[in-house]
Structure formats: structure tokens, C-alpha cells
Write a structure and sequence with these properties.
The chain is an alpha/beta fold. The protein is 57% helix and 15% strand. It has helices spanning 5-28, 134-142, 146-166, 169-195, 197-216, 218-263, 266-273, 275-297; strands at residues 36-43, 54-57, 60-70, 78-85, 95-100, 107-112, 127-130. Strand 5 (95-100) and strand 6 form a beta hairpin. Helix 6 packs across helix 7 (266-273).
Amino acid sequence: MKISHEVKVGFVALITIIAFILMYEFLKGTALFTKTDTYHIVYDNIAGLTESNPVEINGYQAGIVQDVQLINDGSGRILVSLSVDKHFNIPRDSKAEITAASLIAGMKIILRMGESSEMCHNHDTISGYVATSIIDRLGETISPLEGHITSIITRLDSLVSALNTLFTPEMTGDIRSTVANMSDVTADLKQISDNRKDELMAAISEIQTFTAMLSSNSSTIDSTLKSISGISETITRADLETSLASLRSSLNGLDTIVTGISRGEGSAGKLVTSDTLYTNLSNSLRSLDLLLRDLKENPKKYVHFSLFGRKTE
């Protein structure tokens, strides 16, 4: 049977269409010769997720996003269908997390495996959520600090303005001149140190020699210091003993005097112990007081004074 030209053209066109479809699905990431299960997730927001985005399980690409559709019930929710390799058993309490595929762009779904013993079946619905991206986390972290950052920037701007005002051309010139002078002084010091290098080394050597001598004679120096300390202590002790002996002698003399007075010996003893002396002294003082009083009241009785001589009574 002879095949007509039209049939051949139609067959070639069919093969071309099939090849095109297969290539298109391959480019989308669809596993052409792998058996898959389809799972559905309902999201309030898909954060830019599109068809053909990868689906991963523990870092392994187990499938792709097969379809994304807006649920036409007025809720604004989105139905996402996943095509996952049939060899993966997905527990019923697993979660489908939408997250960033990279820092630059792109999204993906990570299946967070649950612990349920019951597994999902083809066309089952599992729960999902959108993870907070790194950029969003950075934004949440930086947002409370925004006011502080603005304040710091303002202060830095004020500081820079103050510095610009402070560092006038004249001051800049003065600073440069000061730096130049310091450089000259440093150069002069270096030259002096180079010229006096031998003297400095000799002085350092003498200091080292003196230090070594002190170190080697440390025991002798220590003994000398101890001797000086002993002599000082002896002198101090001798002075103290002499002072104590003198004080003891004075106290003994004072005790003898007090004992004599208490016994009525001497004038002081008689004054203290004799009533007669006290009585006589008291009478004398009384007579003297009467005499002085009479002298004050009758001075003419005791004193006669006249420009023409004494009057004869």
C-alpha cells in the first residue's frame, strides 16, 4: 500500500508537534519519564511563586510547581499544584514552605516532612505557609534601629561640619608647619643619637656594670644594712634606758619629799601637818588686814605731811 504525500506531511507535522510539546515540558522541568503525584496547597500569598519553580525535600529537587491558579471565590486565595516524584512518601502533617531560592531572585517550595504515620495520596491537599526571607528579616531587624541610625548620621554630619569649620586653611597650614617642625626635631634627635651613639653605649655599659656590681654584692649590702639597723636600734634602746633610769630617780626623789611632808619634816611638812603654824599665820593675816583697813580709814594717824614742818600738838 502506497502512502500518499499528504499522509507523510501530516505524520511529520504530528511528530514535530509532539517533540515540541515534550521539549517544552522538559524545559519547564517536568519529569517526562518519571511517575509523579500531584499535591495541592492553598495560600493567601505566594510571594512571587510561579510555575516550574522547584520543589525540594531536604535539599533535593523532588518536583516542580505544576500550576498556579487564583481561586474564584472572592477570597483572593491561590491554589498551587505540585508535581512530586511518586517515590517520596509525604506524611499527612507535612508543610509546604514558600521561600527564596537565592538572595537575588526566584522562589521555591520546601516540603517540611511531618511525623504522621499516615501518608498523603495523589491530589491530596496539604497545608503551607510563606517563610520570612532573609531580606525581610534584615528589614525587621533594621527597622527598630532606623531612628538611631538617622540620629547617628545627623550627629556625624554635624561633626563633619564642625570639623570643616574648625580646620580653616590657616589652621591646616599651622598643622602642616607643626608636623614639619616635628619632623625636623625628630631628624635632629636622630642625628644627635647617631653622633653620640658611642657615648650612649658607654653610659649604658657603665650602668650595666654598676647594676652587676650591686647584684654581686647584694649579700654584703644586705649585711651592712642589717648592721646599721642594729646599731640604730641599740642607740635607741640605750637612750630609752637612760631616760627611764632618770625618770625612776626623779620619781624616787619625789616620793621621799612627799613622805617627809606627810611626816611633818621641814617647813613644808610643818605647814601641812602643824595646826599652830596655820593658826599663827591666820592671826597674822587678820591683824594685817585690820591694820590696812585702819590705815585706809585714818591715814593722818600714821602719816603727817606739811609744807611748813611738823605741827607740835
